[in-house]
């Protein structure tokens, strides 16, 4: 990458030295304290085991957990919910978004939180008259009625927690950056009485075909600050928490003619939290020579993304290894390295 490469450490705007070999983009400096505290790890050369260069299809695969199979109707995090015992007054799963993403689609109930600064803005069913009418209409025991009742209960739990927090805040002031704001609210719900166990946030805008450095200068700072905000907010339960950052595929090793990179194959996953064996870069790294690349252009996938996620499920959430098949059908955990304490 002759024109867009990040300079070496100690040079102006140089990479942040992680271990003498791998470096972190300087615009992600907010994450360095977590690396130094061994609460941040990376898994390199990982991703989908099937070649897929379409953003939409590749994202579907990482959300349905069945790469190569398009007909899967539910998401792996919804299937995971079915394996976790549900306690009384437990929201359990939270999606930050106006619609339920593929990863949470399925039979289990999920609470939705509007993203950005207007997350607790009332919706029509929050109005007493509308709530009463809908409650009467969907007060039965049929599937649709049960879905409405469960969704209403989940929303009430989430809003109660956030409204209490907002009342204590100075004039209700909130962060101007959307992801930082969302991350702060997710942390409050994880730590608070709602006891949210699983949460999902989606951040777009990473397709860097042209002027990659300009794009990353806009995207990376709020990502780093947002993750730092999340980690700080989770401090009371950080030892019981794992945050996973992942994307659908990587980028080409070589830059293109537009000072950008194109759709690639192998990628990198990030893991943060007190339950992570941090301060390490995991995975089978073969280098960047043409002979080590996939078709001489891409980082290969040497670790299936499900292997990393399965470690989180088994070693952190306590899911028995023989109960992984309902979550990741026909997948065998390789467990070639341990990234979870």
Structure, explained:
With 341 residues, the chain is an alpha/beta fold. Helix content is 31%, strand content 11%. The chain has 8 helices and 10 strands. Strands 3, 7, 8, 9 and 10 form a 5-stranded mixed beta sheet that branches. Strands 5-4-6 form a 3-stranded parallel beta sheet. It is globular. About 4% of the residues have low confidence.
- What form results from the Cα inertia axes? globular
Unreliable runs, pLDDT <50, ≥5 residues? Answer: 165-176
Rounded mean pLDDT is 87
| Helix residue percentage | 25-40%
DSSP strand (E) fraction? 5-15%
Q: What summary fits the major beta sheet? A: 5 strands, mixed
Core attributes:
341 residues; alpha/beta; three-stranded parallel sheet; 8 helices; 31% helix; 11% strand
List the helices and strands and how they pair.
Blueprint (H helix, E strand, L loop, with lengths): L15 E2 L5 E2 L7 H5 L3 E8 L7 H10 L11 H6 L11 E4 L14 E3 L14 H10 L5 H26 L9 H14 L6 E4 L10 H22 L9 E3 L21 E6 L8 E2 L20 E2 H12 L25
Parallel strand pairs: 3-9, 3-10, 4-5, 4-6
Antiparallel strand pairs: 1-2, 3-8, 7-8
Helix pairs in contact: 6-7
Short recap of the structure:
With 341 residues, the protein is α/β, with parallel strands linked by helices. The protein is built from eight helices and ten strands.
